[in-house]
Amino acid sequence: MKTTFAAVAALLATLSAAQAESWTAYRIAESGTSVDIPVSLFTELAAKPDGFGQQFRTSDGRADLTVQAVSNSQGLSPAAFLATKSPPSGIIYKRVAPNFFVVSSIKRDKIWYDRCNFARGYVHCVLINYPAAEKRQWDRVVTRISHSLSGG
Prior knowledge:
The chain contains 3 helices and 9 strands. It has a single domain, classed as Protein Transport Mog1p, Chain A. With 152 residues, it is an alpha+beta fold.
């Protein structure tokens, strides 16, 4: 029980620091994608995604963030693009608009959140995975990342 409390306290301190002042704009030069990321929270570089971009993760590996841009040379709408990805049937939240989509659900005790904006021939995306048990602590972080995503 003591270890769990300490882990939660450390996470809360990290999230508070991330919300305070430790954000920076991450840009993908090739596509014009830009997004604010909490660099004190996502401290490690991970895999490179398809297209352009970078995946980041927390030092303990409990959460990750992928910033990605892929070509939309076919001019697919958000709904058509999402359909090509064959999203899982258990989506909890889905919003599709003329120039973006957002989908989210829970898989293996983690919330996955995916937002993609469509602009200037690219699909500009953020994909975030984090512990479902910590949803409230992550809400403001995920919201800021999502709302700051732009492209072009």
